[in-house]
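Aim 2 progress update. The chain analyzed this quarter is reproduced below.
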Amino acid sequence: MQSIAINRPPETSDRLFRKAVSSLKIVSVATFLSRILGLVRDMALAFVFGATWVTDAFVIAYVVPNLSRRIFGEGAMTSAFIPEFANAQSKEGKAAAESLLGNVLTYLTLILVALSLLIALVALLWSYGFVNDDSTGLALVLLLILLPSMVFLCSAAVISGALNTLGRFLYPALAPAVQNVAWIAAIFAAYIIFSGEVARVIVMSLGVVLGTAISLAILALDLRGKGYRIVPSFALSPRLKKIALLMAPSILGIAVFQVNTFLDSIFAWVFVEGSGAAAHLYYGNRLMQFPLAMIGVAMSTAVFPLLSKLASTGENARFREIVVKSLRMVLFLTIPAAVGLFMIAGDVVRVFFANGSFTDDAADRTITVTWCYVLGLTFTCVQIVVTKCFHARGEPKTPMRVALWLVGLNLVMNLILVRTPLAEAGLALSTSVCAAIGVAMLLWRLRTLVGGLELRLAIRPLLQSAFASALMVAMFWITKFGLAGVFARMGAGRDVLELFLLVSGAVASAAFYFAFMYVVGSRELDELLNRPA
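Predicted structure tokens:
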């Protein structure tokens, strides 16, 4: 019997975006768990090490593997790899996609091993001729220990990209949680077994490496569960060459941005008197990364495969619709997140970090850094999503040019602001200002590239979110002070009381925000709840 082809109408942009939002929720929930564990990790780090020269040494050493993950893994590689992997799978079948994955991982591993050996050689030579203080010497030792994690982190990022393309978002989003569990276990093991700070930080660094290896193994098993094997391949295939060509400007653009972060730590280390400046930047940045990962990174991860597909098929109108919807969703979520984090930063730092070796002065400086980072939170989330739009269209050179221009601006602002009373917080403020300028430049270019974006459609939800966020602040303080009076009469302990008031105020204010947006008929809330408009 001859089969009859059924022509189904193409899915609407609304339906496609709702699928992306479903993936967003999976990634966000998994990321939330990971960030909670990350908060526990940072609490343990602050309790055991505080903000001392040992912490500074670890922060400086950890920048290198983290930088490699950003440059070679999650950013440039996945941006170039996902479209080609999806194209190979849809046009040539599973075998071609599997071959491409093995091909990419083979050469990525070779490059990273060679780079690790080069870094190790430079570190050893540096230690013999230029080290004249304990902090620098310890940083070089920790760097040598952490180098293997470069290979594990970057390979995990590529496998995560393949899994996302196959519709698997849960395990890739949970991978950082596994790393955090290993990290926390290493901190406590070091604290129990060793008494010296140096021995403890070395054991912790070994735990970091172990955690990255375990998360890579879990992702590889999940990929195998989808029927895909990782077979090494040394062939210089056309798709591999195309990925390499697309990666080149992406690597430069991402490298510039990440080098900015690295330079911030160096500026804090060199130009701020006393110890702990780099650690204050680290803790403040970690708090800002909480909403950044749950919203900006999660949104870009969920929508990127869809944008790549629309760009490859030339559906510019639908591409524009999805971009605007994504930006509206980002504003809907990040504006209250930024206002909320600015509002509770002091309570969070004092409740979760100000214990053990973490002094009151360290808490005050970390709070100021967090405030300065939060000023740029919304811009940074938007920038992540807009950058993915360029990568989806095979236009990585534009974000690269913008990043190159911004690195100069950031360096100039760093030199000025680090010498003001803001000290290391001035470096965070510079990062926020650069994020705002970068977003404006990228949106202007994207608008020209796709023939308009109708950004006016984002004005109403932006104003709604801003107004609701202002009311949310009032709700937080009403809840906090109202409950404080009740529990003070009950004689509750100070630490328990502060934690309860923080959580209660945050939950009540968040509930108020979403209730308000429900009353005004927010379309973004309908999409988030998967309700028909």
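The two ends are 42 Å apart (CA to CA). Residues 53-92 form the longest helix (40 residues). These observations will guide the mutagenesis experiments scheduled for the next reporting period.
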